[in-house]
Amino acid sequence: MPDNNDSNWTMEIRSHSGWFDINLSELWRYRDLILLFVRRDFVAYYKQTILGPLWFLLQPLFTTVVFTIIFSRIAQIPTDGLPPFLFYMSGTVAWTYFASCMTQTSNTFITNAGIFGKVYFPRLVVPIAVVISNLIAFAIQFGLFLAFLCYFYLTGADIHPNGWLLLVPLLLVQMAALGLGMGILISSMTTKYRDLAFALGFGVQLWMYATPIVYPLSQIPAQWQWLFALNPMTAIIETFRYAFLGSGAIQPWVLGVSLTMTILILATGIVMFSRVEKTFMDTI
Amino acid sequence: MSDVVIRVENLSKEYRLGTISHGTLKHDLQSGWAKLRGTEDPNARIGAVNREQLNSTNDRFCALNNVSFDVRQGEVLGIIGRNGAGKSTLLKIISRVTAPTSGTIKIKGRVASLLEVGTGFHPELTGRENVFLNGAILGMRKGEIEQKFDEIIRFAEIDKFIDTPVKRYSSGMYVRLAFAVAAHLEPEILVVDEVLAVGDAGFQKKCLGKMGDVAKEGRTVLFVSHNLTAVKSLCCRGIVIETGHILFDGDTDKSVDFYLSSNNLSQDNNISLAEQKRERYCSLRAKIMDISVISDDQRNPKIIDPFKPIIVQLKVESNYEVRCSATLYIADEMQNFCMFDTRLIHGEDLSLKPGLNSVECHISPLNLYSGNYLIKCGLNVHGQEIIDRLENAYSFSVDVCDPNKTGYNLSKGYHGIFYVKHDWK
């Protein structure tokens, strides 16, 4: 008996479809799963620790204190006339969000091989959930930063929060997108070459020093500024700092480059990820 | 007239065996460059040049080879075949865990697959949280889970512990909760792999009952199992897969018969027990290396006198000290007839020493009717772990069962299984 309703198939499984076979509506259908993963990550992470979510506060606090002592007191690197503590803290808080998004999404396939091997759901759910659960940690750390900002402002430090603050939510989205893009790009490649996973920890550290976090962009000689502009995190950190503290050397074209790079990295990441997700179970 | 809900067309899946890629970026780049220029791959194995000519060479393996079939709505399809025949690969492709190498599957409706129970359970989360998480992983919306929550808890029988982290659960509770979530999915198509291998007998029965209900509601079920009795009672159609091909497709009873007969033909005793392939769930902390049967002063007879005692000897190799229970079954391909177990029946464990251990079971005359029988054997920590299991460790037959020499041969099946001594007055 021939079937007339050949067009009514809800799904077709084939070896591989086009390059841009990303099913966003399906991702939307699984939004509950994203939220449940976020909850799981958050709850499970600090179970059986005494300090619990306080750790979110201690990490940036210690880093900032250490940076202040080493880079400001000992190495005497200038901070654009800003209070060094706030200068380092703004950079650390923003960088931590980006770095944890990237490192935690970069092992998506390897750490979730058990689940991925048994049941299908859009694989992007996992890295997206990681980015969102890191947002909670960021919110707590950001609150700490705001508290110090208020304290310094009220005690009359030379800082000028300004209209660029409106850009901060966008910067956050951009950091999330960049962290996600880099993370899934790396995770797509680590299914074949595990080397990258080892290089990552080291790479993140190097990348941090290549970004104006422990020094201001204004300290970089003019002929090397273009090189820093190629690093998408440069513009994000500088703008973030400028918005809250009112000092920095950010130029609109650098922001443009950074935005373009981010979109490019995220798009490449998604394409690579959706290529790999169909067959990685055979290679992992 | 029911619709076709799954159409599999020319489906193939090829795996590369051994190391994936050459392991280093340098060699991969070299090979890629050679491919681009059309010259010979410097890293290719010598002699593996004509790999396209062969179906399966040293480093390639066809798990599924040009498989096509249709499944209609409401059908309960049993897929049977030996280990490594390609059943699980087929289910994996249908549940989209991995993609086929070529061919297509067209599907109508929502598919839920149960290749394992409790996928994504997090030990730190409570039962309640895990129900939601696991449900969402299996494709349910939050609202749906909320609606069925009470029903799930009732099915799993753990209402008291629902707010306890699942790491404190016993393994039985864990499996019950996990299956309860899966059982309350309401997809149009349900794909089930041998998940029923876990859990105690009562729970297995409950699971099979639930699956039967699902089928009665007119939903389509694909079921892979080694439990031929379950396949027979649940499915209305069977497919036999062997080395990636469909050998038989039709009525369940006929496909089970087909499977059994093809199994007997290809079953040679060349492979030692130690080399036989084990199921994935076996932990193999200890391994059954050899079995021998002694009856009537004969070692390993193929034909056994049903009225003589037998001794079954197991050689078990272990690397550690292991306490476990040894289990033997006298069975045939369809069902088990009697069980011998150290823990459950004699209340004592077996203590294995590192090295080769010998375990003997002395069995009184079995009084079996004539027919073909199997001995299955296994090592378990009951309720926790399956250490080793062999579904077909030894096969023997009883030629004649004529206890009072009347010339009438009692045979297995219609007459029953065992002769029981009796007198007429």
Describe this structure in words.
The complex is a heterodimer of chains A (284) and B (425). With 284 residues, chain A is an all-alpha fold. Helices cover 66% and strands 1% of the residues of chain A. The model of chain A has no long low-confidence stretch (mean pLDDT 86). Chain B is α+β, with helices and mostly antiparallel strands and 425 residues long. Chain B folds into 2 domains: 68-265, Rossmann fold, CATH 3.40.50; 279-398, Distorted Sandwich (Coagulation Factor XIII, Chain A, domain 1). Chain B has 9 helices and 18 strands. Chain B has helices at residues 25-37, 87-94, 127-137, 142-156, 171-183, 201-216, 228-234, 252-265, 342-346; strands spanning 4-16, 60-72, 76-80, 102-107, 111-114, 189-192, 220-224, 237-242, 245-251, 286-295, 298-299, 310-318, 322-331, 336-341, 350-352, 355-363, 371-381, 385-398. In chain B, helix 6 links the parallel strand 6 and strand 7. In chain B, helix 3 packs across helix 4 and helix 4 packs across helix 5 (171-183). The longest helix of chain B is centred in the middle third of the chain and has 16 residues, at 201-216. The A-B interface holds A 1, 3, 5, 8-16, 29-30, 32-33, 36-37, 39-40, 43-44, 47-48, 114-121, 192-193, 195, 278-279, 281-283 and B 1, 3-4, 7, 15-16, 20-21, 25, 92-111, 113, 115-116, 119-120, 122, 124-125, 129, 132-133, 136-139, 141-142. Strand 1 (11-13) of chain A pairs antiparallel with strand 4 (102-107) of chain B, so a sheet runs across the interface.
